[in-house]
Design goal:
This protein has 2 domains: 2-7 and 242-354, Aspartate Aminotransferase, domain 1 (Alpha-Beta Complex), CATH 3.90.1150; 14-237, Aspartate Aminotransferase, domain 2 (3-Layer(aba) Sandwich), CATH 3.40.640. Helix 1 runs antiparallel to helix 6 (225-259), helix 2 packs parallel to helix 6 and helix 6 crosses helix 10 (339-354). The protein has helices at 14-24, 40-57, 72-82, 97-105, 148-157, 225-259, 286-292, 313-317, 322-326, 339-354, and strands at residues 2-3, 64-69, 88-92, 109-112, 130-134, 161-165, 180-184, 195-200, 264-265, 276-280, 296-297, 299-300, 328-332. The chain has 357 residues and is an alpha/beta fold. Strand 5, helix 5 (148-157) and strand 6 (161-165) form a beta-alpha-beta unit.
Amino acid sequence: MTYLDYQATTPLAPEAREEMLRWMDGPEGTGFGNPHSPHRMGRQAAAAIEAARDHVAALCPPGGQVIFTGSATEAINLAMRGAPGKGRIAVSAIEHAAVHDTAEALGRAQVLNVAADGQCNPSQDLPDDVSLVCVMQVNNEIGTVQPTAAWHRRAEESGALYLCDAVQAFGKQPVAAADMIAISAHKLHGPKGVGALWVREGISLEPIITGGGQEQGLRSGTLSPALIAGFGAAARLAAERMDEDAAHVEALWNRALELFDGWTVNGSSSARWHGNLNIRRDGLDVARLMSECRNVMFSAGSACASGSGRPSHVLRAIGLSDAEAKSSIRLGFGRYTAIDDLEAAARAIISAADSQG
Ligand code: PLP
């Protein structure tokens, strides 16, 4: 079985798993303490959380704080619902549903245009009463990278805050300054069920979850030392290996492009995270292809999330016809993808596609 769905989730790093076990079992079973308890077991668990916070913060811009949440979706909701100012929320047409649907649910969404190459140009008009701008760093469907520093400046000039959904970028490439940054552990070889919102100093948010007042009153609820320690270990590892991982991804991308010669890449090939290959071939029956390549874990490019059945708003936003979107697939690879496995999987996909005629 070959796993080529790195945008959906990434394999857990052995180092993260090891760290998690420490806080599930621990020496003589002492790892399970409540990090909010004042006794020794509690204080040890709290210290592990603070060490993890430092590792996550080390990948964030200076001058802010990391608030742990249960997912990036929750971090995004905290940012969007808790930010001061209740004007329009400008969201790029290719934002993840966590951003897009939250802006819609608040009844304040204003969609920003995205060009055929997958770029959201910061010189476009913003509404006069904009209070928040949301433009993601790396798109989860097509991998295109946005000019986040320019968007941050643009938001500032308009008197708005800037939220960057950095879920697909964090730990893979540097993250530029923003007002708020949303992150998810499971996209950087950490565990599922834990995320974070980085908030720039001086921004005061309203909590969306109230209760015991954890996380400086911004996110009540007992923190999970095991999940957070795993997140911290994954962030530490990502910082250590960022260049090495990026070089490996580059080699995988170049080989994949050679193998998929003749297929069309959806979105820019250059302003893109190269661990995302979203490609199409005229007339391809993707459902049939997926059923014939059951040993390769990849995603239909036309669905906004694997298995969701919801049509891709991203491929539509970059101008693809329904037929083009339906003939698209997404292959995602990274740190633990062996080049031989990628080659074998690509050959299986290409041979199944060729047999469709
Ligand atoms: N934003 C992007 C770009 C994503 O890819 C995802 C997950 O697919 C999310 C947000 C949501 O992350 P989580 O699974 O932690 O809620």
